[in-house]
Amino acid sequence: MKRFSLLQLAEKFGGEVAGDRDRQIEGVATLEAAGPGDLAFFTNSRYLEKARNSEAGAILVREGTELPGKTLLVVEDPSTTLAELLELFHPVELPEAGVSDDARVSDDVDIGAGVTIGPFAVIEAGCRIGDGARVGAGAFVGNGSQVGAGSVLMPGVVVYPGTVIGKACLIHSGVILGGDGFGFATRSGLHRKIPQVGRVVVEDQVEIGANSTVDRGALGDTRIGAGSKIDNLVMIAHGVTIGPSCLLAGQAGIAGSTRLGKGVTFAGQAGAAGHLTIGDGSVVAAKSAVFTDIPDGSFVAGVPAADHREWKKSVVVQKRLPEMRAELKRLARKIRQLEQDRNQED
Amino acid sequence: MKRFSLLQLAEKFGGEVAGDRDRQIEGVATLEAAGPGDLAFFTNSRYLEKARNSEAGAILVREGTELPGKTLLVVEDPSTTLAELLELFHPVELPEAGVSDDARVSDDVDIGAGVTIGPFAVIEAGCRIGDGARVGAGAFVGNGSQVGAGSVLMPGVVVYPGTVIGKACLIHSGVILGGDGFGFATRSGLHRKIPQVGRVVVEDQVEIGANSTVDRGALGDTRIGAGSKIDNLVMIAHGVTIGPSCLLAGQAGIAGSTRLGKGVTFAGQAGAAGHLTIGDGSVVAAKSAVFTDIPDGSFVAGVPAADHREWKKSVVVQKRLPEMRAELKRLARKIRQLEQDRNQED
Amino acid sequence: MKRFSLLQLAEKFGGEVAGDRDRQIEGVATLEAAGPGDLAFFTNSRYLEKARNSEAGAILVREGTELPGKTLLVVEDPSTTLAELLELFHPVELPEAGVSDDARVSDDVDIGAGVTIGPFAVIEAGCRIGDGARVGAGAFVGNGSQVGAGSVLMPGVVVYPGTVIGKACLIHSGVILGGDGFGFATRSGLHRKIPQVGRVVVEDQVEIGANSTVDRGALGDTRIGAGSKIDNLVMIAHGVTIGPSCLLAGQAGIAGSTRLGKGVTFAGQAGAAGHLTIGDGSVVAAKSAVFTDIPDGSFVAGVPAADHREWKKSVVVQKRLPEMRAELKRLARKIRQLEQDRNQED
């Protein structure tokens, strides 16, 4: 078991201890579950009551947090420190490298050093699997695809032929990369398939959550930019470009050929129509749908998505609509009365 | 072939026959497909015409249903009786128990009596598979996971390490349990992964529909309460607690750390933001999104979700918005006229 | 490498060349990526700038398109011609037919001529696999199911027992056909499963995108009509009937027992409640939800979905709500003043 004093942790990760510096920490736990040997995490004021009642040995907080009577590890950026602490206390346990006898790997596959391939995985002809990459049980990597060094395909991932996955990516179970885009030529009511001959290119350090799908381009590539993180059940259509360092939360969907700039965020269940440009650093609120181009730094909400503040105002007024309608009727009555009075005067 | 008279069925399941008690019933079918040997089911008045035209030998209805000329099996709760009838006429055909030679089960797995494990399934080290459990073809159960007695993982289910599944659960194909939560520490625009070290705990008698995903907790557990039923393509994020006996319909999504009480219903494509508390017995209407805590017994709709009746009223008035705007202009004109008239009088 | 002059292509597919008829074409590429040997595609005016700057050898356009200085292949229906061109330049490379030694095919399965079954696929008892059908690696076909001639199940597809798939279908990876519908009898707050004993029937020439799910009927069938195309992550609930030649875009969802007519379109993230009838040729806009029956030829949008033009008008006015509310207050003030003046006169 790993054990560190709070002071050691503070020195390691650049923070200050408020309280007993010698307290011994053996793990990280939630405010509710933490005991005297655990460090807990508190940054969201919704959980103030839980923080006050926590039995954690110490609580990781940002500067300026008041929790009288508690021992605190105060850092500049608690989320980053939490990531570092978890890496310290929960190092990833790698399976022994090697190709399972039960995997079917085509003879001409180029396999790097220290690669792990699980049972019942299939790697077709012409693939390249980079150093230290891991392909989980039952995963499928189609003809001529590439998996970069250190990337991980969890069990059951399906990679269609010709897909390129960069380095240090993490692709969760059930993800389908490179399925056909939804492209048909409709004539006399019949839908004829337009062959989808582009690729999917996933750049380095991308994470894709369980059961998400990224379709191959119709002609060109569908591209996920470096360092972008995609949650579960997200749909990326053909020809989409996701810039670097984007965040797409659960069940978001991006329609065909839309381009997201750098550092764009889509919250849960949000969507974008096709052929749009979403500017750098834009944020699309949960459950919203973008139907027009939006400039850099936008924060939009609603269906169709509009400026977030406008949307908020409009939502507030919407609740008053029945009241407004009644008021409108009342005013119309009063005006009729005023008109009548005037006419009588004449 | 099984065959029962209506009277026998009435006695078995506690109902009354209206019409020929000796009619022989050999199966259950839809109103449209049913023939003279079939029992059909009618509770939704939308299908009255189909019930009237049905050639079913008898129709299962609740008390008070009028269907002149039809033979009826009248019960208190037709849905429950339908479930019982289907269990009677369509008993589950279990495959022969046993571990397929083509499954890869780690040596130290604790396998109960009467367990079935399909071809190309993988069960990693330290797992426990309870009595009578079934693990379908190509399913994956990661290190140290537990599958309770009588639970079924359909083909292709993926269970990440450390997951706990209770008794008598039914997990449909494509479900991913225990994938990483969507947690990143963002600094200077770069997203650093926060290791997700919690678990997924699925309590007894839970059903999870095809391709749904339940992420593991960041620190603590993600928990699905006993008897809860989850439909297809539903997303349960990290740290969520679903209470007992909840119903989450297709494509619903619950964001991180949100807690659903007992008996909560989310209709199709509904969502909840993170860190919320959804009170016992609450209902969230289809396509709605909850952005704030809601008390026990709420019935909410809209985005953001508000009281269902208020939402309905507001929807009705929304349709009249263009008309209201025109009226507003008309009134403004009249007032200008009235003011003008008054000023002329002065 | 295939190579054709523009004139040859024009004669093959029925078009006219504007410019150099002898230009040699060796492939199809996007406006941005195309070089002098490539044909590019231009129909969406958003990409006019890209078309003007394209280095493509020729551009495929519809009649009436103006692109001064560019060599054009002018056709009546560029999407259909694109499909034909891609079939010409990118013919599907079929794997060698045959059943992998690593597949597990039940002895009594009826396998047609030229069938391909990949490694780790499982085909259970009583199935029929039609001539030229292909079952990908790790796919599962449950007891008594049928896969029609020429149909393709990509790797990892799961077909529950008793499912019928027609001819020339393309079922993408991660699709689950025949999972249980979401049907429970709730009594005293407990949800009892209603056995789902119907089937899924997929008619000919249907395409279903990655990770979509189609549930089996409760009593009767869930049916996908001939020539319908379904995108990724779409949810089709139990007892739904999708008519022929429908298009359901990504993340759309159709609730139980709803019937779509012929040629219905659901755009991305749209939904329909249960037990509805959606008329032939109707279109449901992205992110919308249909809560009532809609007649043939409808074009609806919003939640709840209403006539598309009405929705557009209402959206425009919604943005003016805060302004309308202010105006309402202003008018009320003015009326009070008018009333006061009148009262003073009296």
Automatic annotation (TrEMBL), chains A, B, C:
Where is the UDP-3-O-[3-hydroxymyristoyl] glucosamine N-acyltransferase non-repeat region domain positioned along the sequence? 22-88
Its EC number(s) = 2.3.1.191
List the InterPro entries.
Hexapep (IPR001451), LpxD (IPR007691), Trimer_LpxA-like_sf (IPR011004), UDP_GlcNAc_AcTrfase_non-rep (IPR020573)
Q: Name one GO biological process term.
A: lipid A biosynthetic process
Pfam families the record matches: Hexapep, LpxD
Q: Single GO cellular component annotation? A: membrane
Q: Which residues form the active site?
A: 238
Ranges that cross the membrane: none
A GO term, aspect molecular function: UDP-3-O-[(3R)-3-hydroxyacyl]-glucosamine N-acyltransferase activity
Instruction: Please name the top-level EC class of this enzyme.
Output: transferase
- What pathway annotation does it carry? Bacterial outer membrane biogenesis; LPS lipid A biosynthesis
From the UniProt record, list the reaction(s) this protein catalyses.
Answer: a UDP-3-O-[(3R)-3-hydroxyacyl]-alpha-D-glucosamine + a (3R)-hydroxyacyl-[ACP] = a UDP-2-N,3-O-bis[(3R)-3-hydroxyacyl]-alpha-D-glucosamine + holo-[ACP] + H(+)
Q: Write the record's keywords in alphabetical order, separated by commas.
A: Acyltransferase, Lipid A biosynthesis, Lipid biosynthesis, Lipid metabolism, Repeat, Transferase
Its family?
Answer: Belongs to the transferase hexapeptide repeat family. LpxD subfamily.
**Whom does it interact with, and what assembly results?**
Homotrimer.
> Its biological function?
Catalyzes the N-acylation of UDP-3-O-acylglucosamine using 3-hydroxyacyl-ACP as the acyl donor. Is involved in the biosynthesis of lipid A, a phosphorylated glycolipid that anchors the lipopolysaccharide to the outer membrane of the cell.
**Name the UniProt record assigns to this protein:** UDP-3-O-acylglucosamine N-acyltransferase
| Biological source species | Candidatus Polarisedimenticola svalbardensis
Q: Which gene encodes it?
A: lpxD
